[in-house]
Amino acid sequence: MANGIAYDYPITGATAPTAAQSRRFNQVSAIITGDGSATTLTLTHNWNIPAAQLASNFPEYTVEPISGGAPPALEVLNTGPNGRTANAIAFTLSAATSAVFRVRMKRPFAPTQ
Fold first, then answer.
1. Is the distance from CB of 2 to CB of 42 less than 8 angstroms?
2. What is the pTM of this model?
């Protein structure tokens, strides 16, 4: 099984934004629905983050509970420096049944193009 991913900014749907779609925005967010068994999750931002900024733990991310599930499931949502790539973040989390939460990924500020 897989946790449900629904991107909600800057585009909506199950497909991650393309580089052209995310280029003008400093944030990408998705709503995650826990399936009760999957413990991994990869969110794509497509910003092509340079290595120096990856080493500084960019992009940053925040987790916002929306409904259901046990809060401890949200507390273990994490990634180390190796979980970040130029275009995505790979997360590990505890299996959470019916937990719904939003993950917001934010890149270093840059004037939008």
1. no
2. 0.83
